[in-house]
Design goal:
Structural class of chain B: mainly alpha
Radius of gyration of chain B: 28 Å
Helix content of chain B: over 70%
Oligomer: heterodimer
Distance between the termini of chain B: 43 Å
Mean pLDDT of chain A: 84
Mean pLDDT of chain B: 85
CATH class of the domain at 275-345 in chain A: Alpha Beta
Radius of gyration of chain A: 23 Å
CATH class of the largest domain in chain B: Mainly Alpha
CATH topology of the largest domain in chain B: MetI-like fold
Order of helices and strands of chain B: HHHHHHHHHHHHHHHHHHHHHHHHHH
CATH architecture of the largest domain in chain B: Orthogonal Bundle
Order of helices and strands of chain A: EHEEHEEHEHHHEHEHEEHHHEHEEH
Strand order of the largest sheet of chain A: 6-7-8-3-9-10
Shape of chain A: globular
Number of domains of chain B: 2
CATH architecture of the domain at 275-345 in chain A: Alpha-Beta Complex
Strand content of chain B: under 5%
Distance between the termini of chain A: 27 Å
Low-confidence stretches of chain A: 1-5, 345-360
Strand content of chain A: 15-25%
Shape of chain B: globular
Number of helices of chain A: 13
Number of strands of chain B: 0
CATH topology of the domain at 275-345 in chain A: CBS domain Like
Helix content of chain A: 25-40%
Number of helices of chain B: 26
Low-confidence stretches of chain B: 1-14
Structural class of chain A: alpha/beta
């Protein structure tokens, strides 16, 4: 997968959003560097998103993660200008959203992007099928086409049999399936999810996450997914952007975030993650010691520790880790146990395992 | 999990410190102490200067302003045929409305020359309106409408009732034509909303009585004037509720629609209007009830309808007749309220029906419509179906019974009612009136300014100052202070009752289910109706107005307080209960303080309702501004004074409203 900028599905460059009456005058002054609280006390303006840049490759699931108030929901709304950015550019499939006219923007929203919302945003006065067809209806497709397409989507998300129900007759999980179907119906290139599952029960949430993974495999859309749940981020994300106070703290793959947290904030965040489930061999291997056997099995560096553990513990010699043809290092029983065992201790005795996963 | 193990050492260092929101510091205030000090200063001032500078004027005494207003009235009357604006704009509106009302009257209620009866007789009207109720609001409403219409006839007020319906319907029709687009515009444009909302605020603050005189000035006396005054009074709730309904469509839903690229028109048609439909019909309900109550009062400016017999009976102290015609108004209020409410509830159901039942519904409507049309034809052709039968006459015997019962009652419980009257008069009214009206005007003005500052800060002080200046300008300072006294005493009673009942309702679900329907019913009744029992019990006096005002103000205030108490977070109540709070502590330390904003809002609404009723009480011997307004209609030379009284009432209403509004806004916190 290339992430060459010319082919990016979504490219965001130094995006800012400051809420307040004279927000645009703050940019470029020293005030822009103040902390959120200082800025609010001084000017009454609230810094929601501060100088954010990133790219999303076609087909990628890109997760934006942060606590409430970190600016992630604002960020996702800036991408389609549901909220107007204060400054910066957003380019989607070569189309500069931030420069688009009102009409062009509407076209983009009708055909190229679709969004799933935390509180569903369904129309209570319409049946499920009409909710799903809504996006097609407003862009003027005829009744037959949109009903056929909606039925297809209803079946795809597992709502068959509920077409004529009204949203308030469905559970939260089912309602969000309607939201999903509605977004899929317009066949967008990019799907955005704004904390779609945080209002759902944990079991339903897990179910819906698997549903997203399945849909991603089936329809292969590029996805931008907002969440405050780290587990969800690790489970769904190809890459994760961690936000705090409107700023990017770290962008990386799940194992990079867990293995090499950018600062104490991220470290604290990931401290309770079962590391063996996320980290790959790359993060636990080391240089072979002098005289150590180099006869062991060969494994690729991107294997997850948990999956490789049994084989490594069973082998007599340290396992050799390769990236393609290139030899990187070795892993033995101790290296594995340090990740697996230390982590089992964790819930009882607090101090996080020291030095684990540190890239040295 | 080892439960007994000592808790692990707290984390070595808390890395994530939750950021605290930015909050401005609250100021320390000693409101109660300062209010007390103000009161003491007032009493001292009164003792020193009482009787001086009270600005009292005699009943027939006119100031220059009043004479000038009389001249203005004469100018208006003289130039109706010469002045362009009066002749074409006002005259045009007036003629158009008169034409519509006359047309409807000849169609439904009054003889249509050369016929001795209207085009459509009573049977046709009953058939038509019943069918309409069935189509819009369902079978139960249809039965209610048919029964109510027949009762109007049997009580002997067929023509007056249909006339009142016509005035109300004409006003509501125009309200919908103007109000819906206005509400939609306000919901979609912040500027429009910001510009129009203060006007609506003002319109809703002005007591209904104060509308009458200015309209007479412009439109003269008669049906057109009655419809215009009704429509002005009924418009604000419709506009407000329409805007509110559109604005309260869930933000997420709108965002979801925007994210899919709707146009503004699509958003309105496919999302906002369907989702707000029910609320908008509630707005039509409020508009209708307001129109009904104003249309009855408009009888004072010669508006046709049931208000006429009530006014005449009230002014001649004929309790029996007032009771029967008042009963007809009550029945009409219930009929209109139930029907429009049912229509609102039904709008949702209808939209959800499947295609099969829609088909069935069309057939049923067509069939029943044919029956209604047949009834209309019959009533057009045969006299028995055109003129409401004289027999059975329920109205006259009922009126006689009520009169004799009332005579018996006043003969027997006079002592009790007089004792109550004296207690309130000597205990509360007279001392307060002495303070208000016998103090020098500058002392009372200063006290009002200080009080508004203490309760609401600087902004209401400015409004208060302006309103005081206006009242002084009308030359009716002393009368205004008398009205204010009555209003304050009645409001105190309203609040005492409302807090007691409201707290009870808020804490007890069953009490709420029992009491609320009564409050709802009382709230739908036009204010005129309240005067009848008050008059029966207490005769024509200042106190009668107070009783009617209390009865009129209690329902709204009680409901607001009950809702406020109910709205207190259940978590806080639960936490307090877990800490061992007694029931009394729960009320005094948790529920009432947390519902403080609701209590202040209730006093705001209570004040405005009471003021509007106290003014109407002028009809039955209450003195003060309302009496001046009424005499302005009956005596030509007092017109200017009546108009000035209307202005003073408005200023008083605005002042009381602003002070309590700001106090309410401030009591939202701490």
């Amino acid at each position: 997968m290339t992430t060459d900028s010319s082919e990016a599905a979504l490219k965001v460059e130094s995006l800012w959003k400051i809420f307040g009456s004279k927000a645009d005058r703050i940019l470029g002054t020293p005030d822009a560097d103040l902390s959120r609280k200082e800025l609010q006390a001084k000017t009454g303006c609230v810094m929601a998103v501060k100088d954010v840049s990133f790219e999303v490759a076609p087909g990628e699931v890109f997760v934006v993660m942060g606590l409430s108030g970190s600016g992630k929901s604002t960020l996702v709304r800036l991408l389609t200008r549901l909220i107007e950015p204060t400054a910066g550019t957003v380019v989607m499939n070569g189309d500069e959203i931030t420069a688009a006219s009102e009409d062009r923007l509407r076209e983009i929203r009708r055909h190229h992007v679709a969004m799933v919302f935390q509180h569903f945003g369904l129309l209570p006065h319409r049946k499920v099928i009409d909710n799903v067809a809504y996006g097609l209806e407003i862009r003027g497709e005829d009744k037959q086409t949109r009903l056929a397409r909606s039925q297809e989507m209803v079946d795809l998300v597992g709502l068959s049999g509920y077409e004529s129900s009204y949203p308030d007759q469905l559970s939260g999980g089912m309602q969000q399936r309607v939201g999903l179907a509605r977004a899929l119906a317009v066949d967008p290139e990019l799907m955005m999810f704004d904390e779609p599952f945080s209002a759902l029960d944990p079991l339903i949430r897990r179910d819906m996450q698997n549903e997203v993974i399945r849909l991603h495999e089936e329809v292969g859309k590029t996805m931008v997914f907002i969440t405050h749940d780290l587990q969800e981020a690790l489970k769904l994300g190809d890459r994760i952007l961690i936000m705090r106070d409107g700023e990017i703290v770290q962008i990386g793959t799940p194992d990079e975030v867990v293995g090499a947290p950018a600062d104490d904030y991220v470290k604290d965040f990931v401290s309770e993650v079962p590391k063996s489930h996320v980290l790959t061999l790359k993060w636990v291997m080391r240089e072979p010691r002098p005289g150590e056997s180099l006869e062991g099995k060969v494994m690729q560096s991107d294997r997850i520790v948990k999956d490789a553990a049994r084989e490594i513990l069973d082998s007599d010699d340290p396992v050799r880790v390769y990236d393609g043809d290139e030899f990187l290092g070795v892993v033995d029983d101790d290296d594995i146990l340090r990740v697996v065992v230390a982590e089992e201790d964790e819930p009882g005795s607090e101090p996080a395992p020291v030095g684990l996963g540190k890239s040295s | 999990m080892t439960v007994t193990a000592p808790p692990p050492e707290s984390k070595p260092q808390a890395k994530v410190v939750e950021e605290q929101p930015f909050v401005e510091e609250a100021k320390q205030r000693h409101t109660r102490l300062l209010l007390l000090a103000t009161f003491v200063a007032w009493v001292v001032g009164w003792a020193l200067w009482k009787g001086n500078h009270t600005l009292a004027i005699g009943g027939a005494e006119l100031t220059d302003l009043h004479r000038w207003l009389n001249d203005v009235r004469d100018d208006f009357d003289n130039s109706r045929d010469s002045n362009f604006f009066l002749q074409y704009v006002v005259g045009g509106i007036s003629d158009a409305i008169d034409w519509v009302v006359t047309f409807l009257q000849e169609l439904f209620s009054q003889p249509a020359f050369p016929r001795p009866v209207p085009e459509v007789g009573w049977l046709g009207v009953v058939g038509l309106l019943t069918w309409l109720a069935y189509a819009l609001a369902g079978i139960r409403s249809a039965v209610l409408v048919a029964a109510s219409l027949l009762l109007f006839g049997f009580l002997g007020y067929w023509e007056d009732s249909i006339d009142l319906l016509i005035v109300t319907a004409a006003a509501v029709g125009i309200c919908i034509l103007i109000g819906l687009p206005l509400g939609i515009w306000m919901a979609r444009s912040k500027i429009a909303s910001a510009a129009i909302t203060p006007i609506l605020d003002l319109l809703q603050t002005v007591p209904s009585f104060a509308y009458l005189t200015p309209l007479v000035l412009v439109f003269g006396i008669g049906p057109a004037s009655a419809v215009v005054v009704t429509l002005i009074y009924a418009l604000p709730p419709l506009v407000r509720i329409t805007e509110h309904g559109l604005r309260s469509v869930s933000e997420t839903t709108i965002e979801a629609s925007s994210s899919m690229g709707v146009t503004r028109l699509q958003l309105l048609r496919k999302v906002q209007l369907p989702m707000a439909r029910r609320t908008i019909i509630v707005g039509v309900n409020q508009c209708t009830m307001a129109a009904l109550s104003m249309a009855t009062i408009a009888a004072l400016i010669n508006g046709p309808g049931l208000g006429q017999p009530v006014t005449k009976a009230l002014q001649s102290l004929d309790v029996g007749t007032a009771f029967v015609s008042g009963l007809a108004i009550v029945i009409m209020a219930i009929m209109l309220d139930r029907t429009t409410t049912a229509a609102s509830e039904r709008s949702e159901l209808l939209a959800r029906r499947g295609p099969g039942s829609a088909q069935r519904r069309r057939i049923v409507l067509a069939a029943t419509g044919a029956v209604a049309a047949a009834l209309v034809y019959v009533s057009h052709t045969y006299l028995w179906a055109a003129e409401f039968p004289e027999e059975p006459d329920l109205g006259r015997p009922l009126a006689e019974r009520v009169t004799s019962f009332n005579d018996w009652l006043t003969g027997n419980i006079d002592e009790t009612t007089n004792a109550l009257k004296d207690l309130v008069s000597y205990g509360l009214l007279n001392p307060l009136q002495a303070l208000m009206a016998d103090s020098p005007w500058w002392l009372v003005a200063a006290v009002l300014l200080v009080v508004s500052y203490l309760l609401g800060g600087w902004r209401p002080v400015i409004t208060t100052a302006i309103c005081e200046a206006v009242i002084l300008g009308t030359g009716l300072w002393n009368e205004t202070m008398r009205t204010l006294t009555t209003t304050l005493v009645a409001t105190a009673a309203v609040m005492a009752i409302a807090v007691a009942v409201g707290v009870w309702m808020g804490r007890n679900k069953r009490a709420d289910t029992i009491v609320r329907p009564f409050l709802d019913a009382f709230q739908t009744m036009p204010p005129f109706v309240y005067l009848v029992p008050a008059l029966a019990l207490f005769g024509p006096s200042r106190f009668t107005a107070i009783v009617a005002a209390v009865a009129y103000g209690v329902p709204i205030a009680t409901k607001l307080i009950a809702d406020g108490i109910r709205g207190v977070s259940p978590t806080s109540v639960e936490a307090a209960r877990a800490a061992g709070t007694t029931a009394w502590q729960m009320i005094s330390k948790v529920q009432l303080p947390m519902a403080r904003a609701a209590v202040v809002l209730a006093s705001n609404q209570g004040l405005l309702y009471v003021l509007s009723m106290v003014v109407i009480g002028g009809l039955v011997g209450g003195s003060g501004l309302g009496y001046l307004v009424v005499s302005g209609f009956s005596q030509a030379q007092l017109f200017g004074k009546g108009l000035a009284a209307g202005i003073a009432i408005t200023a008083l209403g605005v002042m009381l409203d602003r002070i309590t509004q700001h106090a309410a806004a401030r009591s939202g916190r701490h």
